[in-house]
Amino acid sequence: MVYNILLERELSGTGSDVSDEIGGTDMLKGKVAVVTGGTRGIGYAIVKKYLENGAKVVLFGSRAETVEKALSSLKAENAEWEVAGDYPDLSDAGAVKAAIEKVKDKFGKIDILVNNAGISDSTKIENYAEGQFEKVMKLNVNAIFNAIQPTVAIMREQGGGCILNTSSMVSISGQPGGVAYPTSKFAVNGMTLSLARELGPSNIRVNAVAPGITKTDMVAALPDQMIQPMIAGIPLRRIGEPEDIANAFLFLASDMASYVTGEVLSVDGAMRA
Ligand code: NAD
């Protein structure tokens, strides 16, 4: 299987600590992380940030080619980084469980799970096709549940861990159009707050990051007449960079956030949708 090829090849590095050499801060030294939707955009920035800070990372994408491409580009930046990839169908609970368990088998643990894969939507309600609402919910909500459930079993057994979800600024005030998207992100916040309370006694922290408008393919797909008024409404007067968001994911995954759980951290230049 491509997974095995990718995993075995990519993890056959030296295992040396690289973060000092590349200017990382070692905030995640020795940690093992899984990042869904790690092939591009915000997820890719998180993967890179975690690697720079000493973590070993398995990124999940939707296809073998995009996973390969992301791994090659990361390896081109630093051949010593311990990074592997897989592409389970995130809507298939069994496939996700198997992929998560493979990570545990290879690394012995999972310290950090980042549920970042997501799709956007701007369809007016009357134009929704049959099944379109469910498609957004399936990836943005059900898939997160699918990844969290098997990971929690592993984290409980190892004595703790950290789960992070990508929410959105629209999870606070909604958005005019594409109702499935804000609905899904409200659900992400609900899952985050509830699981923080359920899993706190097992030393598992659960937080979310709510990005504002961020420079990725997802935003490139939006019409210009939707983006320009948004920039004018951002007090910091710029769209966020993927690295702005990755920095928040770094903080929340690190021991610096050891008493932070059940939080949805806005990283949006004070933009309010
Ligand atoms: P992107 O489109 O650049 O990347 C999305 C990622 O999700 C990709 O890695 C892709 O492989 C993965 N993905 C998409 N469909 C998938 C599927 N069916 N199965 C598995 N993986 C799939 O998007 P992005 O802007 O980097 O968004 C990442 C997250 O950030 C999403 O959850 C999104 O809702 C959230 N977000 C983005 C913005 C923004 O302005 N870009 C703002 C708020 C929240």
Could you explain how this protein is built, in words?
This protein is of the alpha/beta class and 273 residues long. It has a single domain (28-213, 242-267), classed as NAD(P)-binding Rossmann-like Domain (Rossmann fold, 3-Layer(aba) Sandwich). The chain is 46% helix and 13% strand. It has ten helices and seven strands. The chain has helices at residues 2-10, 41-52, 64-77, 93-107, 132-158, 170-173, 180-199, 217-220, 224-232, 242-253, and strands at residues 32-36, 56-60, 83-86, 112-115, 161-166, 204-211, 264-267. A seven-stranded parallel sheet has the order 3-2-1-4-5-6-7, sandwiched between helices. Helix 5 (132-158) links the parallel strand 4 and strand 5 (161-166). Helix 4 runs parallel beside helix 5. The longest helix has 27 residues, at 132-158. The chain is globular, with a radius of gyration of 18 Å. 45% of the residues are buried. Residues 1-5 and 8-23 have low confidence and may be disordered. It binds nicotinamide-adenine-dinucleotide (NAD). Residues 37, 39-43, 61-62, 66, 90, 116-120, 139, 166, 168, 211, 213-214, 216-219 line the site of nicotinamide-adenine-dinucleotide.
